[in-house]
Each structure stands twice: as structure tokens, then as C-alpha cells.
Design goal:
Elements: E1 3-9, H1 15-27, E2 31-35, H2 42-54, E3 60-63, E4 77-81, H3 83-93, H4 99-119, E5 123-129, H5 140-159, E6 162-167, E7 170-175
Parallel strand pairs: 1-5, 1-6, 2-3, 2-4, 4-5
Antiparallel strand pairs: 6-7
Helix pairs in contact: 3-5, 4-5
């Protein structure tokens, strides 16, 4: 049976730790961790290395930029960390497309994620950043990112069976239920 979880919250709110614990509960060692950020600078290289050290060594990691092929994934539990990076990658790879069309492209790719997870009977845990409480970015691509991610978050939340929001390391369940 396919189940979709969405874990949202601000920066350093505990999203990754909570989602990794959830993945362990649901999939033990049979988890596919999908990382969406790339080693773009020295700080990001250190951040990615820290995340790798904290994950169980038995988990398989797949580094994805803008496409996920669920048909090729054997694991039943998939942890996507994070939707924010996935959306950012799509925007950067397609910057030449007009804003509304670009947001439409993001939403189609996000819809394909949830549809494919259900079709292939996967448990999908999606981590994302809450961008609705922040300031309006001063630059155009930042505003398009905020709008695209906000709409993508809303879409995944509607599709998800279970949604939690993280604040200071504490999960507040917004929809469905989570294992204890």
C-alpha cells in the first residue's frame, strides 16, 4: 500500500532528524534516501557529509537533480530530502522559461512524484521547507522559487496521507497520524 508523508518546517526545525527517524520506523534498513542538493561549495560539501554520517550506512542514497524514476527503485520506503532542493533544481535548470510556465513545470514534476509513488506502492516521506512565513525575496528568481515551492507544498500536503509541521524539534501533526 502506498502512503505519503509530508514533513515541513523552517530551517533547523528538526525536519531531517524527524523524517529519518520515521523512515527507520517504517523501513528499518530498507530505505532509499533521495538527496536533492549538490556539492556546490565548501559549506555545502560539509553539510552533505554531515547528513551522510548521520544516516544508517545500510540506506542506499540516490542523488537526484530533477527526475525520479520510481520504477527503478526497489526499496519500499523512500525519503526525499528535500522538496525545496528538488524545486530549486528545476527552476535553475529551466530559468529561461517564463515564470508561470516554469511554476507549471514544477507542479507537473511534483505531481508526477506523488502519482508515481502511489502507482508503485511506495511509502514516500517528503521533507520540505515552509516558505510562507518569510519575507518577499528581493530578486525575481527568489520570488518564483517561493511561489513554486509554496504551491508544491500545498499540492503535496493535499496528496499526503500524513502531514507534520516541525517547530524547535517538535512535530505538530496537521493531518493523519504518525507512528509513536
Amino acid at each position: 500500500m502506498a502512503v505519503i508523508y509530508l514533513i515541513t518546517g523552517g530551517a533547523r526545525s528538526g525536519k531531517s532528524a524527524f523524517s529519518e527517524s520515521l523512515a527507520k520506523d517504517l523501513g528499518a534498513l530498507g530505505v532509499l534516501y533521495i538527496a536533492t542538493l549538490s556539492e556546490s561549495d565548501s559549506e555545502m560539501i560539509k553539510r552533505i557529509a554531515r547528513h551522510r554520517r548521520l544516516r544508517p550506512a545500510a540506506w542506499r542514497t540516490l542523488e537526484i537533480i530533477t527526475e525520479i524514476d520510481f520504477e527503478a527503485i526497489s526499496e519500499k520506503v523512500i525519503l526525499l530530502d528535500c522538496l525545496s532542493g528538488f524545486v530549486s533544481n528545476i527552476l535553475i535548470a529551466n530559468e529561461e522559461i517564463e515564470d508561470e510556465e516554469l511554476i507549471g513545470l514544477v507542479l507537473r514534476k511534483v505531481a508526477a512524484l506523488t502519482t508515481s509513488a502511489r502507482k508503485h506502492k511506495k511509502t514516500l516521506i517528503v521533507v520540505t521547507n515552509e516558505v510562507g512565513s518569510g519575507i518577499v525575496p528581493a530578486y525575481k528568481l527568489g520570488r518564483v522559487f517561493r511561489d513554486a515551492l509554496g504551491l508544491a507544498n500545498q499540492y503535496v500536503a493535499k496528496q499526503a496521507d500524513n502531514v507534520a509541521s516541525m517547530t524547535v524539534g517538535i512535530a505538530t501533526v496537521l493531518k493523519g497520524e504518525f507512528p509513536d
